[in-house]
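Page 37, continued from 36.
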């Protein structure tokens, strides 16, 4: 049986005894129904993992004793920053979850002219909290010990204008280049994925002014969530750690 992996939001120290945060304690005590003497693996986002043993558990609280730490980096040599125009319903959550599994380091939700998601400040804040929880759960599942950041949502042009010394890519159905024709080596990529209706002509022109290169994935039109994951996979195969 695989030992459950649990994220702890504060830096851990080998040999100490700690209480799990409320959400993690609920998962371990109520969902997994684990008890004293059972083993866990904890990580705190520093690329270290800690062997842990439960010393006390009930439905409201769990305390664990931490053993030795070990460095266990699962990070790709390619640093990927995904700028994703927000999609409706569960599509955005699906994209974030799978992007983390594929090795994305930073995710910025974006608003564009054709973005179909309309949220006030309160709902957007709740969405952001939910997205970060999805990131943590994906790390617990896939074995990553460094937790990607979900940034605050922003307008497309503001994000496009940010300084970045990496390669900036925008998917376009009439582009002349593909990921396989991009020159090696590449260590950093800022990847823009548009909305379900695509970017407007003015937005595409704007991204070009900020140094984005248009690339083509293939002859078929992909849904926005398929586009993001296909592009990330292709970039990891070409420049990262998939192959």
């Amino acid at each position: 049986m695989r030992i459950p992996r649990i994220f702890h939001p504060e830096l851990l120290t080998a040999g100490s005894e700690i209480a799990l945060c409320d959400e993690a304690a609920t998962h371990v005590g109520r969902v997994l129904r684990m008890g004293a003497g059972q083993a866990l693996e904890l990580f705190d986002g520093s690329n270290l993992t800690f062997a842990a043993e439960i010393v006390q558990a009930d439905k409201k609280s769990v305390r664990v004793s931490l053993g030795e730490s070990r460095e266990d980096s699962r990070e790709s040599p390619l640093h990927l920053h995904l700028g994703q125009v927000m999609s409706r319903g569960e599509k955005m959550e699906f994209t974030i979850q799978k992007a983390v599994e594929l090795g994305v380091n930073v995710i910025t939700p974006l608003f564009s002219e054709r973005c179909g998601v309309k949220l006030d400040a309160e709902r957007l804040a709740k969405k952001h909290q939910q997205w970060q929880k999805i990131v943590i759960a994906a790390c617990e599942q896939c074995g990553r010990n460094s937790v990607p950041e979900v940034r605050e949502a922003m307008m497309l042009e503001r994000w496009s204008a940010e300084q970045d010394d990496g390669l900036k890519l925008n998917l376009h159905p009439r582009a002349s280049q593909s990921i396989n024709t991009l020159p090696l080596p590449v260590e950093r990529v800022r990847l823009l994925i548009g909305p379900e209706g695509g970017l407007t002509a003015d937005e595409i022109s704007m991204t070009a002014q900020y140094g984005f290169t248009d690339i083509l994935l293939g002859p078929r039109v992909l849904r926005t969530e398929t586009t993001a994951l296909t592009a990330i996979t292709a970039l990891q195969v070409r420049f990262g750690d998939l192959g």
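The chain has a mean pLDDT of 94. Flag for discussion at group meeting. The first strand starts at residue 5 and ends at 7.
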